[in-house]
Amino acid sequence: MRAALGILYGLIRAKRILAPVGRVLITPLRSAGRFALKVIGVPAYRAVFFVKRQIGRVLLPAKNRATYLVSNRYAIHVAVAAVAAVAGTANVSGGEVRAETFGTESMLYALVVQDDSASVEVVSAAANPSLNNISYFEEDGTIDPRAHLDFHSLDQDYVTTTVGGSAVSSPTIHEGGDSVAPRTNVESYQVADGDTLYGISDRFGLSLSSMLWANNMTVRSVIRPGQTLKIPPVDGVLYVIKKGDTLSKIAKTYGADQERIISFNRLSDSDDLTVGEQIVLPDGEPPTPVAVSRPAPVSQLFSDKPGSTTSSSRGSATGKGNWKWPTDWRVITQYFGWKHTGIDVDGDYTTHSYAASDGVVIYSGWRNGYGYTVEVEHGNGLVTRYGHHSKLYVKAGDAVKMGDLLAQTGTTGRSTGTHLHFEVIKNGKFQNPLDYVR
């Protein structure tokens, strides 16, 4: 109680002290406010009121007249008659009248009917194909290859043996690489962190096969930082002259041109050979025999109907030797020939593509015509190409072993059904894939 009384006593004393000071401070402001209201506020209010009253005198009669015009029943009749006249004129001047197009050119037709057929442009996204299985099998279990084909032939502008960003037969040297100018001598390169065999060969404008041959390696070889590699000047083979060698024999054995060997190595003639000297065989390749397996009977390839659970019809993707069947099913719907650069193997969105042999992925992405494509280099000038996928699982530079998963079957690119288009390219030329896989 005493505290409350003390507070009240304090407030009373504060009022007595502060009241005179407040009056001194507020008096000038109060005078200024009254002056502003009298000189500015009142005249401004009167001006606004005057303008508003004058505008009302002008607009109110016009508003009444406009309301009368719209609400008059005769005005509505006149508007309907005008619309009918305009529509009739447009129909009469529309030109020839045909039964199937009667009334389609009129204004009323355009107002009532929304025509969705007049599309300016249709854009489809190739990156998101519709996952509807389009098998080559008919409902009765038979196959009609004419219904589902791809059209990869040599007369198509997109069909090429160029792989991995460079040509198999004559790759170009990339700008920004370690050596842009044409090279004539063998160079040495020290492997750095993050290097791959494919990356080094691409940097110097060489095929992976040439790099492997020059360093006595295979696609399974592992390189380590600090290791020194030989870099040949061009694609081909580095050969050391042995006793009894002749230039013609060397050229024939390695598939190289004798005159080009003389010119590139600056030899005076075909007899200008020194035992122990290393020469370059441009575009040559080691004499590696191609293993050809025995053809499977046609009855095995087309034996079972879709839906069969036996492994012989669509089979396991197993093979013999160093090559493996590249997909899950085994139904061939189109063979290799002069109008077709590979083989087509039926599949759906549950099947996949596999590496036919050990190698390095040199391309993984979209190729015109082929759709989503994977290309694998296997050494000895051999490259395999897998086309029309719906999804890719590898990227360029990945080392793969025989049977490793590459992609999911699809129908992207120039394709009318879910299948694998499989090609084998050797030194820039298409080969019959059935000479390598069975």
From TrEMBL:
InterPro entries: Cell_wall_metabolism_enzyme, Dup_hybrid_motif, LysM, LysM_dom_sf, M23ase_b-sheet_dom
Protein name: LysM domain-containing protein
Domain LysM: 187-231, 237-281
Molecular function in Gene Ontology: metalloendopeptidase activity
Transmembrane portions of the chain: none
Domain of life where this protein originates: Bacteria
Renumbered residue ranges of the record's region Disordered: 281-321
Provenance organism: Candidatus Uhrbacteria bacterium RIFCSPHIGHO2_01_FULL_63_20
Feature: compositional bias, Low complexity: 307-319
